[in-house]
Amino acid sequence: MSDSLPHFRQALSFLKPDESPRIAANLLSNYALANWASGNDDVALRQLGESLALTRTIQDIPQETIGLNNIAAVYAGLGDDARALDFYRQAQGVAGRVAKYSHPHRRVAGNGEHPATAGPCRRCAEK
After folding, report:
1. Residue 117 carries which DSSP code?
2. Would residue 93 count as lying in a domain?
3. Which of 8, 9, 98, 127 has its CA 20 to 30 A from that of 119?
């Protein structure tokens, strides 16, 4: 993993977070995970915090959930169970907001009707 760190650093140098916040947040999150895997826990936590701030700014709720889970995983790996549990609980709360947006047909049609066929999709019919 440590071989990938210079590549992440270079990729981030080309991005301007205010121009591509979603891409910057995802790249920063992956860079953080590579740092964590390389034993750079403090750097990983700082980068995950920066990524989380970006995802909250652009209101990317699914990515916010992932970011909170990643922070919790780092704390769990460090043996800080209380902090890990706090971030897992935050992620669970955010994930509750994701559920109502997770089905693409409801997002478009609002009623479980498949927008392309004007009939119920299989996923909706299974519920």
Report:
1. T
2. yes
3. 98
- Contacts of residue 27, Cβ cutoff 8 Å, sequence gap at least 6: 8, 11, 12, 15
CATH of the domain at 50: 1.25.40.10
Q: How many domains does the chain have?
A: 1
Tell me what pLDDT residue 102 has.
53
Least confident of 11-20, 57-66, 105-114: 105-114
pLDDT in tens, 47-56: 999 999 999 9
Which parts of the chain fold into alpha helices (H)?
5-14, 21-37, 41-57, 61-77, 81-99, 104-109, 122-125
- Residue 108 covered by a domain: no
pLDDT tier at 90, thresholds 50, 70, 90: very high
Tokens (6 digits) for 104:
């693409």
- What pTM was estimated for this model as a whole? 0.71
Residue 112 lies in a domain: no
